[in-house]
Amino acid sequence: MAVRTALLDSAATLFAAQGPAAVSVRDVAAHAGVNHGLVHRHFGSKQALVTAVLDRGAREIAAALPASGAEVAALGGLFTAAASNDTHWRLLARTLLDRKRPRQLQSEFPAVRRLLEALAGAQRRGDLAAEFDPRLVAGAAAAMSLGWLLFEPFLLAAIGHRERDRERVRADLLRTAMAMLSRLSGGST
Which of 31, 61, 119, 145 could form a disulfide with 111 if both were Cys (CB 3.0 to 4.6 A apart)? Predict the structure, then answer.
């Protein structure tokens, strides 16, 4: 188990920094301090290793979401959890830029699924207007969160903020996004 964890940790670090296409199995093994044959023994292939890293990151983000089923809490939790796991979203961005298909890379999407379930529940209760597709609202919320995190340095400069303002701007962004979600439901979330 320790070798598997070391390989996952090393792969996550290297893949997020350089992209999976630029990192070999030997690079991952060397970074983990083990023989490269152990990558194949534990994962079978480099592709399976990439999937295992992405799945683990997705589960970690989902585990950090609040237990509450409230959609506003789920949205805030998604952004906060994603922000705290930059290795995952950086790796996700790199794999997508390499034109890899998400369903081939990641076998589960637990954080987005939990947000979608919260929004669908809100719609069943009448707290989210029937005209809104919960899948699209969940997708838009995930896009806003991931897009902000990926392009944050550019966005901060573009809107006239300094890097040292990052945490305050994130808090303001989250408050704004939550208010927008509340408006989708007529203010009752």
Answer: 61
Report the alpha-carbon distance of residue 114 to residue 175 in Å, rounded.
20
> Is residue 118 included in any domain, yes or no?
yes
Domain count, the chain: 1
Owning domain of residue 150: 2-184
Degrees, nearest 5: CA angle 167-171-175: 170
Q: Which pLDDT tens digit goes with each residue over 11-48?
A: 999 999 998 989 999 999 999 999 989 999 999 999 89
Q: Would you state the torsion angle of the CA atoms of residues 136, 139, 144, 146, taken in this order, to the nearest 10 degrees?
A: -170
Q: How far apart are CA 11 and CA 138, in angstroms?
A: 29
Whole-model pTM? 0.77
Domain with residue 151: its CATH number is 1.10.357.10
- Beta carbons of 49 and 34 less than 8 angstroms apart: no
Helix (H) or strand (E) holding 41: helix 37-43
